[in-house]
Amino acid sequence: MVLDTVKTLPYLTGDLAGVGGRIKVRQEDFFVEELPLYQPSGEGTHVYALIEKRGIPTMDALSRIGRALGVSRREIGFAGLKDARAVTRQWISVEHIEPKRLQKMELERIKVLGLARHSNKIKLGHLAGNRFVVRVRDLNTSLKSAVGRAEAIMAVLARRGVANYFGPQRFGNRNDSHLLGEAIVRGDYERFIELLLGLPDESDTSEIYVARTLYEQGEYKKAYKAWPGNFLNQRQALRVLVVKGKAAAGVPADAQLKKRAYNRVDKYMKRFFVSAFQSDLFNEVLAARMPRIDEMLPGDIAYKHANGACFQVTDAAAEQARCQAFEISPTGPLVGQRMIRPEGQAGEIEERVLGRRQFQESDFRQMVYYNVRGGRRPLRFQPRHGSVSSGTDENGAYLQLAFELDSGCYATTLLREITKTDTLY
Questions:
Q1: Using the 8-state DSSP alphabet, how is residue 52 labeled?
Q2: Which residues contact 319 (CB under 8 A, 6 or more apart)?
Q3: For residue 6, how far is the Cα from the chain centroid?
Q4: What distance in Å separates the CA atoms of residue 208 and residue 238, rounded to the nearest whole number?
Q5: Whole-model pTM above 0.85?
Q6: What is the rounded (10 degree) CA torsion for 208, 213, 217, 221?
Q7: Residues carrying an active site annotation
Q8: 309 forms bridges with which residues in the sheet?
Q9: pLDDT tens digits, residue range 234-271?
Q10: At 277, is the secondary structure helix, strand, or coil?
């Protein structure tokens, strides 16, 4: 790869053999169901609908529903984004609408399974967790052996926890979202535009590879036409280079013009990139703490699983029993102005990772501008109601894993422990 940004993250159960295999061979192999934060009361102006979607992103589903109802997508409430290559169930809300209109919708790959009323709109984060049922195919061992391996790994993960890495979907198809985010934080607009529009990579589709190559050659007008229409940010940025700069073939755009192109990129998308940079730093610190994610160190900032509160650990030995009971966990940094820094041994580990980045106060101000303020995140999470089974269908043999995770935890981080591979798809 041109970017060469793939990082190998250590396993917690590296001493236990994995089962190999792939997930999402079929949409039905990956099932996700939201666990709502609260139940609808049955009264109110907001109509809640439980939808099931197959093989489409959440935002695409909301757009289709909005068009069918004649309302803006922004008027539709939802708690979280769900996998596209999957069968997923989640609650949405629409205010001041007749429930029958939702019930009668006939949309391809979207079903309404239930309706209720409530007094408020569903908002991002109104989510207790998710229930997963995942089938793993193309195993590297027999079904009987795979079940035994998976059960042994699940037992360790239930006891010690799963490393709370941000999953690969956080970093985009090219695994470069965090690099774009770092360029934003540093105010390096030229680097941002280079990453957004150039650097063709073997992982790109043929269309995008051509578009990025044309940008590299200074053919901005041709690059603009080559980008597929749904890549609005890339096209908006290139439009500035073509129209404002009147760029000729082979003539590079100057720094000021690239800053103007940067300013045309959607602010929400920039916030996503900055959050990805924050996530990458967390993963680095977590990797440095592996495999001691179930051990409190002197100076740690501990996370209370019951309510999400954090506190400074003054006596690590005294807190270890609570850690083993999964009442508390050590945390890692979500870099930003609100981040509390650990002390002692925990602080030394964190500083070794973050110190290499040499953050300035101006960097934190940039993060605040994009509403990325920082905090702490537990280094581990505990899967609940885990089970392992196997079966065979018309597509062959499979290992089936079922479990529940809290909101914000990535199923892929659990699955990679069981498969021992990062190429799950």
A1: E
A2: 296, 302, 313, 328
A3: 16
A4: 14
A5: yes
A6: -20
A7: 83
A8: none
A9: 999 999 998 865 554 555 668 888 999 999 999 989 99
A10: helix
